[in-house]
């Protein structure tokens, strides 16, 4: 094995071009587990820790440019106002020690359907900035997850940052697990209200081969809110609408039975989380902040 | 490969390190610092917790090469670390944690043994003993490092703060109650000491 330690982004791209099989290592919270357990013996490890730029973020007028290696802890501490959905999701990842090292770039690199950042990223409608010596491209998050633990990146590409729209309305994240800390999601749900475009976006974790949006549920809800003039009136959402939204969210799942839960349970739980998180975000849109943050 | 970094204030070097080796392995097997424990090697138990540039991390999940040129504090250096922090004042400003510069200036005053025997205990270590928070002791080093960092950031943590800060550290013996007691005790003693200093 070789350990490559590029000091700059350009050096990292050159190294990845020269050794496309090199495994990038950021926080190492996925990579090191695989190495410790002999599940992976890469020829090259490409350490990204010396590239300071990757651990920085910039808050622009409309978007936040989040460096690939910004830790979950930093997201929770610094970007709660701009990226509330992602900050909530970050807080449910593992433990303080893991959150101090792991970040969104690694979550995207692994592209596990259970990764907690994904529902929030899908709901926000972000773009992933990837680059190689051949050039830079922005991958819309909807096109990023292409299969079980597979993403849309080419072997010579690295993730530089994620460009997320700043929240223009309330966002929520909910996760089912057997305990509060240190738990892989049985399933998870993210929702973002976008009052500026009068749309709602969602993300579902651990209930399909990849993280997915509940598009039919989104379209149904957007139409219902529009037709009923809810964005203007701020009236409560009728239970029938919330119920239909929940059912459609359930229907967007394509889960499996595994040790963490059955497919049936996952479908059911996603429906419940969809209804609850819709309730929380809508109440907060109407100006009634929820007092407790837990489900 | 060769890896050089600072451990408990002293520069250390390890040769013939395998590229996939963890910081935990280097500390335990190459540097003779077995305080950080290896129980799971997958980030689940926290018994390998150390400070990396001031930040608590699972040393089993940090590649040794990633630590080149950085600062590590292990449980063996905790007493000295806490002492220097007390002497040089810690964070009353709200900007908490240890800056890299501060960490660089810090040097452990070597006791007889590199493993930290014969040194005074840090307040959190003493509190663990006094509260009866140690049974088999396997989880203790990681908990001490995590709890010490909590108290550095937050001198009077709520129970929820303590639970959150220690949520990455498993203990199979104590049932956690005595561990919570120990952190509360250390916090109360710390407050007694800093009362009137505006911290
Ligand atoms: C005990 C434990 C509990 C966990 N709990 C959770 C949890 O609750 N929720 C959750 O979502 N995850 C969890 N994880 C998984 C892990 O912490 C996350 O996936 C984390 O986001 C990974 O980030 P990292 O920087 O550590 O990634 P790394 O391990 O460094 O990398 C992960 C993958 O991404 C690639 N990669 C990293 N950076 C880049 C880049 N810039 N460009 C291209 N590829 C890159 C790597 O090559 C690798 O394939 C847990 C892990 C552990 C050990
Ligand atoms: S040995 Fe590192 S977390 Fe268990
Ligand atoms: S005292 Fe035995 S594991 Fe905690």
What is this entry, summarized?
The complex is a heterodimer of chains A (295) and B (199). Chain A is α+β, with helices and mostly antiparallel strands and 295 residues long.
Features:
heterodimer; A: 295 residues; alpha+beta; Uridine Diphospho-n-acetylenolpyruvylglucosamine Reductase, domain 2; Enolase-like, domain 1; five-stranded antiparallel sheet; three-stranded parallel sheet; 11 helices; 13 strands; B: 199 residues; Ubiquitin-like (UB roll); DNA polymerase, domain 1; five-stranded mixed sheet; binds flavin-adenine dinucleotide; binds FE2/S2 (inorganic) cluster; 2Fe2S_fd_BS (chain B); 2Fe-2S_ferredoxin-type (chain B); metal-binding (chain B)
Written description of the protein model:
The complex is a heterodimer of chains A (295) and B (199). Chain A is an alpha+beta fold and 295 residues long. In chain A, 36% of the residues lie in helices and 22% in strands. Chain A is built from 11 helices and 13 strands. Chain A has a 5-stranded antiparallel sheet. A 3-stranded parallel sheet of chain A has the order 1-3-2, with helices on one face. In chain A, strands 11-12-13 form a 3-stranded antiparallel sheet, with helices on both faces. In chain A, helix 3 packs across helix 4 and helix 4 (84-91) packs antiparallel against helix 7 (117-124). Chain A is globular, with a radius of gyration of 19 Å. The model of chain B is unreliable at 91-96 (pLDDT under 50). In chain B, strands 2-1-5-3-4 form a 5-stranded mixed sheet, sandwiched between helices. Chain B has helices at 23-30, 78-87, 100-105, 123-131, 140-153, 159-165, 177-194; strands at 3-7, 10-14, 49-52, 55-58, 71-73. With 199 residues, chain B is an alpha+beta fold. At the A-B interface, helix 2 and helix 5 of A face strand 4 of B. The structure holds flavin-adenine dinucleotide (FAD) and FE2/S2 (inorganic) cluster (2 copies). One FE2/S2 (inorganic) cluster binds at residues 134-139, 171-174 of chain B.
């Amino acid at each position: 094995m070789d350990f490559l330690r590029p000091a700059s982004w350009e050096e990292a791209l050159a190294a990845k071009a020269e050794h496309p099989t090199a495994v990038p290592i950021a926080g190492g919270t996925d990579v090191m587990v695989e190495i410790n357990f002999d599940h992976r013996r890469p020829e090259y490890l490409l350490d990204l820790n010396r590239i300071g730029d990757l651990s920085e973020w910039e808050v622009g007028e409309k978007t936040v440019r989040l460096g690939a290696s910004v830790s979950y802890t930093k997201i929770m501490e610094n970007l709660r106002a701009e990226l509330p959905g992602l900050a909530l999701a970050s807080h449910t990842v593992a433990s303080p020690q893991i959150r101090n090292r792991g970040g969104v770039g690694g979550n995207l690199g692994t592209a596990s359907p259970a990764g907690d950042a994904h529902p929030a990223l899908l709901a926000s409608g972000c773009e992933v900035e990837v680059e190689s010596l051949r050039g830079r491209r922005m991958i819309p998050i909807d096109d990023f997850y292409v299969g079980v633990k597979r993403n849309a990146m080419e072997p010579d590409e690295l993730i530089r940052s994620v460009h997320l729209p700043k929240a223009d309305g309330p966002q929520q994240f909910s996760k089912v697990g057997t305990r509060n800390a240190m738990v892989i999601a049985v399933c998870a749900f993210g929702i973002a209200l976008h009052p500026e475009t009068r749309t709602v976006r969602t993300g579902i974790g651990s209930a399909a081969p990849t993280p997915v949006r509940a598009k039919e549920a989104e379209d149904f809800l957007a139409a219902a809110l529009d037709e009923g003039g809810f964005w203007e009136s701020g009236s409560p959402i009728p239970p029938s609408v919330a119920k239909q939204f929940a059912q459609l969210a359930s229907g967007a799942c394509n889960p499996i039975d595994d040790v963490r839960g059955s497919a049936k349970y996952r479908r059911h739980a996603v429906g419940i989380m969809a209804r609850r998180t819709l309730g929380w975000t809508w109440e907060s849109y109407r100006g009634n902040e929820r007092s407790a943050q837990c489900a | 490969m060769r890896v050089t970094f600072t451990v408990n204030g002293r520069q250390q070097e390890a040769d013939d390190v395998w590229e996939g080796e963890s910081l935990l392995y280097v500390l335990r097997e190459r540097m003779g610092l077995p305080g950080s424990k290896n129980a799971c090697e997958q980030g689940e138990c926290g018994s390998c917790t150390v400070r990396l540039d001031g930040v608590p991390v699972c040393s089993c999940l940090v590649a040794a090469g990633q630590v080149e040129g950085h600062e590590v504090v292990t449980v063996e250096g905790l007493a000295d670390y806490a002492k220097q922090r007390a002497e040089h004042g810690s964070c009353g400003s709200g900007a908490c944690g240890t800056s890299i510069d501060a960490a660089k200036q810090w040097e452990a005053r070597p006791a007889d043994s590199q493993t930290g025997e014969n040194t005074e205990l840090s307040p959190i270590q003493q509190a663990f003993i006094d509260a009866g928070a140690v049974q088999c002791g396997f989880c203790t080093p990681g908990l001490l490092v995590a709890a010490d960092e909590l108290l550095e950031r937050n001198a009077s943590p709520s129970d929820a703060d303590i639970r959150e800060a220690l949520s990455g550290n498993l203990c199979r013996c104590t049932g956690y109650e005595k561990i919570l007691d120990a952190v509360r005790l250390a916090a109360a003693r710390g407050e007694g000491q800093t009362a009137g200093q505006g911290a």
